Amino acid sequence: MLRRMLPLMVAGLFAAGVLTGYNVVFAQEITSDAKELDQGANTIWMVGAFLVFFMQAGFAFLGAGLIRGKNTVNYMTKSFMDFAMASLSFWAFGFALMWGTSAAGIAGTTNFFLTDAAKGQTYVDWVFQMVFAATAATIVAGAVAERTRTQAYLAYSFIIGAVIYPIYGHWVWGGGWL
Questions:
Q1: Signal sequence: where (predicted)?
Q2: Domain hosting residue 102, numbered range
């Protein structure tokens, strides 16, 4: 069986190489353009961020399937609002506490409301970390479904996005003590 299939597989790979414009690349022809590499890396970070963003929908559907039908709309609204609240709080305070100039390794002290943000890379970093901060706020949603008031849950989401996730992130990634 394999002996009959081998020539077909080789022919298929050859045809795929010819049709896709396969070229042999030698080391002498390689040129490095840092701007193009940086743009490609930013694209990868953004794709990763949007994949994490779509986890929000997964958490919302999972939680909605685990609760009573009469509370489904309330739960879905909380799932949307916790992302919005955590995102706004991370924009206002969280990113600065996480990536700002370190004060004794505890938290950042600059760049609140992204005021000192440079073009490009800072915004990519913000989006990437923002979706993780919002996801951290969403994880608890299933445990407190049907048990908390909306205002209390939104306050919790604000605190996660503004303080808890960013300070721990600063300790680990932002030049802190861990």
A1: none
A2: 34-172
